[in-house]
Amino acid sequence: MVQWYKFVLYYLWIAPHALLPVVSVLMLMRRLHKSFPVFFLYTLYETLGFLLRFAAYGFASGRLYRYAFIVTLAGSTALRFGIIQEIFNHVFHGYSRLETLATASMRWLTGLLLVAAILSVVYSSGSISDNLMAGVALLSRSVAIIQAGLLLFLFLVSRIFGLPWHSCAFGIAFGFGVFASTELAVSALHLTDLTEHSKDLLDLLPTGSYHVSVLVWLGYLLAAEKPLGAATHSVSEMDQWSGELERTPQ
């Protein structure tokens, strides 16, 4: 392995996880852990998960690292689902029927994706660890698709929903959107005919984009002068849609 590649690989692996504790501390200082408890838990979980994987990589066998990676990735994926739901609830806060509809939709989608992941494990050929990796990877890609769509959704309708672009909810979604979009692009490119050298370079993109995501979260938290609650602007379109749902028979 070329020396510069090894240095960049280690830097992109370590640096974002070294910054995540700063994100956690800033959330506590801004009292944003109360508004975004799942995201706050995610920052703590990712930090501890990295320490576990790093220890397994440096002091244990490759097999133990593989299982540590699968377990921490599964937990991270579950938390990412929770963060998506948290952002939707934040956006739809004050519009009870829309919030209920968004919650129900996310639950059904989560269930379907979990079933798809379990089936991929059951019917895949190969070792147990390979099957687990396939199932978790499928679920992770599914979350990436949802998060990429969430970013597009927020870009298109943030003004309609009264969600300002400087709000922390938008910052969290934007950070995950950067990572999710890159993850999907890399997955698609891996299906093409690439050289081994190109694949090695391509593998730097997900970790690099995650580094960018953490920097985005830091930037939004540093720019926030006070905790930002849900959008409070009076938005006629949202009032209309919420009113229509309120009038819908049970």
Features:
0% strand, 250 residues, mainly alpha
Describe this entry's structure for a reader:
The structure is a single chain. This protein is an all-alpha fold and 250 residues long. The protein has one domain (27-236). The protein is built from nine helices and no strands. It has helices spanning 3-29, 37-59, 62-91, 96-123, 128-157, 168-189, 196-202, 204-223, 236-246. Helix 1 runs antiparallel to helix 2. The chain is globular. The model is unreliable at 226-236 (pLDDT under 50).
Describe this structure in a few short sentences.
By secondary structure, the protein is an all-alpha fold. The chain contains nine helices and no strands.
Question: Which structural class best describes the helix and strand composition?
Answer: mainly alpha
How many helix segments?
9
Rg, Å, rounded: 20 Å
Give a count of the beta strands, DSSP E runs of length 2 or more: 0
Count of spatially separate domains: 1
How would the global form be characterised? globular
Uncertain residue segments: 226-236
As a percent range, the share of strand residues is under 5%
Distance separating the two termini: 63 Å
Question: Largest sheet, described in full?
Answer: none
Mean pLDDT score: 76
Element string (H = helix, E = strand): HHHHHHHHH
Q: What is the subunit arrangement here?
A: single chain
Helix content class: over 70%
